[in-house]
Amino acid sequence: MRSANRSGRAGRKPALAPNFLSHGTFECREIAKTRQFFEEFLGLDVIQTSNISLLIRLGGSHCYAVVESKDKAPMPFLYHNGLDVASEAEVDAAYETVLAAAERWNLSRITKPAVQHGTYSFYFWDLDDNCWEILCNPEDGYSWLFDKGDQQGRGHLSKNFDRPTAVDE
Question: Which of 16, 41, 42, 47 is at a distance of 20 to 30 A from 93, taking alpha carbons?
Answer without folding.
Answer: 47
